[in-house]
Amino acid sequence: MSIHLAKRKYFVWVHYFRDHQNAVETANEIILEGGQAEILQADLTQEEAVLRMFDICAKQRDSLDLLINNAAIIQSKKITETKFSEWDDIFGINLRAPWFCSICAAELMKLKNEGLIINIADSGATKNWTKNAAYGISKNALLNLTQVLAKSLAPDIRVNSISPGLILPSDDMKPEQWNFLMKKSLLRREGKLDDLIRALDFIVDSPYLTGADIVVDGGYRLGS
Fold first, then answer.
1. Residue 90 placed within a domain
2. Is 139 tagged catalytic?
3. Is 32 part of any domain?
4. Which of 2, 24, 41, 176 has a CA positioned 20 to 30 A from the CA of residue 80?
């Protein structure tokens, strides 16, 4: 998404928490292709770190056009097994961070009386998962946050979400597990990164769209 937005002539801030190398590589790829990008480090669970990050944005670029809230923690645990600290960690990144980042971004967007916020949710957010309980609940809440932000920041700032399905397997997922999940989607196959990019373009290019969730999952949400 960062690389694609740079091709659309956006100046891109590439945020990272610990993975400095990947952030640098992404920014360098953008620059090599003629785009503009810089990296920003911040722990999104810390208020001062988030404020400092957006302060850098404000001082160097004056305003902000688009924010994508993508950071997330997923944990495969039943709700009866989830520890108090784990619940806080998951909700701190999956829900509180997009709320606070959106509020901070909105202050910069108001300088131009326009802006767009996109939250990355999950097509399984409404499935009431029991194995990924805290994660699923946090993503379901993110869908609600998207609509509340859309109402609160209107009419100048649009807020939407994208709910990806089976696009990329996690590093620790076995092929048989991935294949099993694919069979649960209506289209019986995995999605591609281009499918997410098309959803991103659709939102960016639809000035009358706000408060919407674009589900890109091959029918996984409707499957068994």
1. yes
2. yes
3. no
4. 176
